Amino acid sequence: MDFLEHTDSPALSNGASWREQLKRVQHVPLFDRVSAFVQGLPPGDRVVFYALSGLLIIASLVSLYALEQSLLEKVPTYGGTLVEGELGNPQFINPLLAISDADRDLSTLTYAGLMGLSGEGKLVPVLAESYTVSDDGKTYTFTLRKDAKFTDGSAVTADDVAFTVNKAQDPGLKSPEYANWSGVNVVAVDKETVRFTLSKAYAPFLGLTTLGILPSRLWQNISDTEFPFSALETNPVGSGPFKIANVSRNASGLIQSVSLTENPYYVLGRPYLNGIQFNFYANTEDLTSALTGGAVESAYGIPQKDALTAPYARVFAVFFNPSDNQVYARAEVRKALSLAVDRRAIVHDVLGGYATPLMGPVPPGVGITQVPVPPVDTPDAAAKVLQSAGWTYDGNARQWVNTKAKLTLSTITIRTSNVPELKNVASAVKADWEQLGISVDIELYEPGDLSQNVIRPRKYGALLYGMVIGRDQDLYAFWDSQERNDPGLNIALYVNKAVDTLLEDARSTANAEARQKDLQKIEDTVAADYPAAFLYAPNFIYALPQDLQGVELPQIITPSDRFATVASWYRYTDAVWPFFAKQGR
Question: Where are the beta strands (DSSP E) in 152-301?
Answer without folding.
Answer: 185-190, 193-197, 242-249, 255-262, 275-281, 299-300
